[in-house]
Amino acid sequence: MKAISPRWSAPLAPVARLALSFTLTALVVACAPEAALPVRASALQSLTAAPAIEGSDTIDRQPVFSLRFDRSMQPADDAVWLVDGPESDSLRSDARRGALSTANSARRIAITVERDPEQPFTLRVRPAEPLWPGQRVTLLTTARLVDDEGLVASEDAINPQPVVRGFRVCSPSDCRPTSRLSSPRVSDVPYGLKLVRMTFDRPIVPAIEGPVVWIERTRDGEEVPGVGHLDCRDGRAWRCVRFVPDEALEPNAEYIVRLGALVDSDGRAPTPSTHTFRTGNRSRAELPSFVNAGVCGEGERSSPPLCIDVRHGSITVSARSDYRAILQLRAGEWTTESDVGTTLRAVIAPTIASAHTPIIATLLAEDATVARETRVEPFTTPARVARVRIAEVYARPRSSAAQEFVELVNEDESSVNLQGFTLRTSSGRSALPDVAVPSGARAVIVGPTFDVRGDERAGDAPIAPGAVLVRLERTIVQRGLADRGGDVWIEDATGAVVSRAPLSHPARAPKVGVSLVRGDTRMREDDPASWTYDAADSATPGAPDRLR
User: Fold this and answer.
1) Which helix (H) or strand (E) holds 105?
2) How far apart are CA 532 and CA 548, in angstroms?
3) Is pLDDT at 71 greater than 60 in this prediction?
4) Highest averaged pLDDT of the listed ranges 95-99, 180-184, 352-356, 436-440
5) Separation CA 304–CA 315 (nearest Å)
6) How many other CB atoms sit within 10 Å of the CB of residue 379?
7) Strand intervals (E) in 79-121
8) DSSP H helix total and E strand total for the chain
9) What's the predicted TM-score (pTM) here?
10) Is the dihedral of CA 287, 291, 297, 300 positive or negative?
């Protein structure tokens, strides 16, 4: 055989050497131990939310999200987001980009993010305010969440992706009682503070003998001398607790509020929550004065500087002040207080029917120093009427405005005639006709062209068998229910408010094809959190409500 010419073999040598190099490199990489591979991210080990319903993604209104990674994390601003709404491709895209779109940014929920001092691999995420019953929320991480070495947090270490997890908040009736620090609510608290108050969204009672509330200095856990007791009486239970320190607190110190053994009517303890406040350098707060409230709202009576809304079972007093203050109301043995602010609103409930009721309104500074006291001319509370309340409001039908309705439920022990009652909004009213509603029955108030068969093609439900149909001669409240939202209420013949649905709150605005229903009657009716959207994203005219 003829030998290969050297002039042909020379060019092949570099190619052979390059191929051999690639082969050796591949063998080295293939045989290298896993630990030698470059780590591209800090991996998430677990994500839990507590309190939560076991075996589901349903959480309580005041959850603590715990994110545990395989490394110690360094939380920074915009490192973690909590957004109103379910998981979506849009949110995943925003998390990868590290910036929320305009639409998603408007749905962002305020949170605090802290590294657990005892478990540096774990981050604790808490919403700044209680979430809404039935709400869907999504927790996301961004590229700003890194570990101590600067590696980005991810679902796993090999395929870096932001953490995106969706949760559903419990329904009003399933949620545990929530609490909030209603006084003080400022960052620079006067150290001469005379009152600490915790408010609950439903009545609570002591579970056992012992203290119901106390405060401790966070730095060393030292308990502050003082007196704590239940307050804001509501029937046989209470809606708040107060603590009065025996002496001035320490300036520039953080304090934590501790709750004793308290339960609601179902025996459920309030959601465990951390409530802290920090004192400043001021010994006292500015003394406030009443500011003329101006024109009182619909259904309120003017008693300058106050506006008073009297309805069956409650008295609401509103006022304004020039400095941050607390409005305290006393009516006989009843005492209640507003939150701290300059726009003040306090509610006395329940009240006694046909009672001659004098009220003393006291303006307190934010440290609870008495600034001004005024007496309201005594008036007589409304006589007892049947317990009729609004149970469901359908303001934005899928088919046409003709399918709007307002559903009432008769909670009285006997039949009720609706003649003399008025259905109202801020833009109109409808006098209800001579129609009897049996005890425990539901009445559906509709306009003249409402179709009881519903609209199956569009998705509007028919009226339930056995429901009482209350057909008006004209459109509901003259112009119909507002698509943008607005309170809907029932008045009796004297003009007193019997029941109200708070559709004016942005978190409870009408949705297309979805009704708003009363979720928990133990919570105040005017608390938007006591309402929720139909669980099936539809409506149930005349049928029992579906709760999320």
Assistant:
1) helix 102-105
2) 8
3) yes
4) 436-440
5) 16
6) 15
7) 80-84, 111-115
8) 3, 38
9) 0.76
10) positive
